[in-house]
Design a protein that fits this description.
Two copies of one chain form a homodimer.
Chain A lengths: L15 H15 L7 E2 L1 H8 L3 H14 L2 E4 L3 E4 L4 H25 L2 H20 L2 H18 L3 H13 L1 H8 L4 H17 L3 H21 L2 H4 L7
Antiparallel strand pairs in A: 1-3, 2-3
The structure holds a DNA duplex.
Chain lengths: 232, 232
Amino acid sequence: MAGYDIKHDVNDKYSLRGRVFQKLREDILSGKYKEHEELKEVAIGEELGVSRTPVREAFRQLELEGLLQIVPNKGAYVTGITAKDVKDIYMIRSLLEGLCARLATEKITKEQMEEMEENIYLAEFHEDKGHLDQIAELDNRFHDILYEACDSKMLEHTLKDFHQYVLRVRQRTLATNTRGRASNEEHRQIMEAIKAKDADRAEKLANQHMINAYDNMVKNGLKEIYGDESTS
Amino acid sequence: MAGYDIKHDVNDKYSLRGRVFQKLREDILSGKYKEHEELKEVAIGEELGVSRTPVREAFRQLELEGLLQIVPNKGAYVTGITAKDVKDIYMIRSLLEGLCARLATEKITKEQMEEMEENIYLAEFHEDKGHLDQIAELDNRFHDILYEACDSKMLEHTLKDFHQYVLRVRQRTLATNTRGRASNEEHRQIMEAIKAKDADRAEKLANQHMINAYDNMVKNGLKEIYGDESTS
DNA sequence: GCAGCTTGGATTGTATACAATTATACGAGG
DNA sequence: CCTCGTATAATTGTATACAATCCAAGCTGC
């Protein structure tokens, strides 16, 4: 979503609003609250032991995060995400992750490069062991490292937003098949291109990595899950 | 309608929060509130004749819009925008406007195409007359038409965000030189490529259009205005 | 029986009161 | 004169009270 620059991920862990925000976000992404479900201020407030005020503010934040849709004087609803939205996001991400990889080729620090290598190594290990949760976690982390390495707050934030936005869908598809190994292999190639300072190659590989990820999702039934339901 | 989009244009014109939000946004973009200036809840509330509650909620929205930075227990500050931020945004926009033009080649409606042609025609007229305000307005509108024509809510919204975000800077540069005419000529070429269903050409032209716009900004002293001040 | 109005409950929108936190000014001690 | 601690004022964070709005159930009149 673009356009925010420095959203401080300070997420304000210790204010009530911040805690409510994080809790709701997690619950939405994990699927506890289904799409189009209505969230009521008092109910959430009572459940978390706070008043309506921090809940309301958390709602407003979640709306701009794209997880809630607030209808004035009516209510807050968990947003739906259509198959076309997912497709468009991957199309956009393909371009931007490519740009990100290109920039990272110049800007990546030694520490980031080391963490990236470690990430890939670890992912292979967990892949052998079949640790699905860790695989998903490492996959997310790989991309976060890449985003940070491009040294552009704007690009980093944009990509993190999109990345987060499709998490709801991705969780259900990555762990269910053999995409994990192929994905990690692509990560390795991107990493090696960056290490070799081959920006063109890094960009192309990152482009293709997104396309492959999307194709895999489609192959594994994205259409069925997120059919053509239209959002209100 | 924007229910599944990442951010919602539900600008809620008739709620107090919505009005406060729009007012503050406008004032920040127009430069009434300078960068790093502190906005106090009570002061804003009194100025607009409302209580702190809607002001606070508007602040939270503006933070996610990237116009405010809220420091917990301390205050809300107008965000700075660095020269690097602007550069990064144009880099990203170059890619995405290209994608947008490519998609629009397939998806544009007859009405949108007609408005686009009219836009370019009008812009030439105002260029001859030296109507700077209208030129800026038409320039904005051209891009909005393009965004709408790509038939992707996700891409449209992302681009609108970025577009809006650099308005603070662009206002000061477009009207001060001869970029207007060149810009409009580039619009015409993009439009003609779309009309000819030449997606590749439309994409490339849109890419270059952004690069040219950025180069022009740099040439006209962006660096001096938005030096290397670091955002906190 | 049904259309349309009325009314009541539920929910959000806003205002205000109170608590917690931060920053600053001032004075005591060195 | 400087430093540190305390007190106080200013500001934000949270809770609660009240107003406005929406929705649906039920009543009325035909």
